[in-house]
Amino acid sequence: MLPALIGLTAAAVASAAGYQSMAPQGQWFGRTFAGGIRGSKQIALTYDDGPNDPHTLQLLDVLAKHSVRATFFMIGRYVRQRPDLARAVAQAGHVIGNHTFTHPLLIFESAARTRMQLVDCQQALEDTVGEHSNLFRPPFGGRRPATLRVARALGLETVMWNVTGYDWNAPPAAVIEKKVMRQMRGGDVVLLHDGGHRAMGADRAQTVAATDNLIRRYKDQGYEFVTVEEMLAVSRQLLAVG
Question: Rounded to whole angstroms, how far apart are CA atoms 146 and 15?
Fold first, then answer.
């Protein structure tokens, strides 16, 4: 009986650990920022897997129309491929973060290979846009203790999310909006995509349309759109007071 109980306990722990390695708001393996600031009227829009032609530029037009700044987590190899798009994002005043060089699932990567992914992406960003943020988002949200240790050693702040539009498979804009609205509480970091990790040219037209509608809807309700850096600053102030 005892061996069976031990086996079940080990299986449960392993299952929980696996969940925490991918759960956006899981904190077992180290501190990350995932939004969810109670009582806040701020929203941080974030976009992964770019830069991407043509939808990153279309998204910039929508954000400019509403005077909204967002946070873009870029893949290094795409930055190398289309530096003009990365520079356009930076010149528009948006925050740019590290999303690794080739978008691997880091829970299966060694510390050395993880470091290489982050350093290569940082270098691509520095060569292209110069000074940028110290923000990092792991591909697929996958991380383990070694992943976060490497990021911290490089001076990077790991950013997750607490709201997602589930837009990676390009559903209609109305579906993206509905999924986001079901999760929004205020003080939220919203995960969307302006690109796709498999190849340049992913169709993100529906995400662009959803962004336009979501900004209009939540501005009308009195919400403020901020960058992750701005939301992090508020979070730190609250922690210092608390």
Answer: 19
3-state secondary structure 8-66: HHHHHHHHHHHHHHHCCCCCCCCCCECECCCCCCEEEEEEEEECCCCHHHHHHHHHHHC
The CA-atom distances, in angstroms, between 73 and each of 4, 58, 172 are 45, 17, 23
How far apart (Å, rounded) are the C-alpha atoms in residues 105 and 107?
6
- Sign of CA pseudo-dihedral 189, 192, 195, 197: positive
pLDDT in tens, 122-140: 999 999 999 999 999 999 9
* 47: β partners: 72, 192
Residue type at 11 in one-letter notation: A
Residues marked as catalytic? 48, 193
Question: What tokens were used for 192?
Answer: 């969307």
Kindly list the domain boundaries of the chain, sorted by start residue. Answer: 2-241
The C-alpha atoms of residue 98 and residue 149 are separated, in whole angstroms, by 15
Task: Give residue-wise pLDDT tens across range 150-204.
Answer: 999 999 999 999 999 999 999 999 999 999 999 999 899 999 999 999 999 999 9
Q: How is domain 2-241 classified at the CATH fold level?
A: TIM Barrel (3.20.20)
Give this prediction's pTM: 0.91
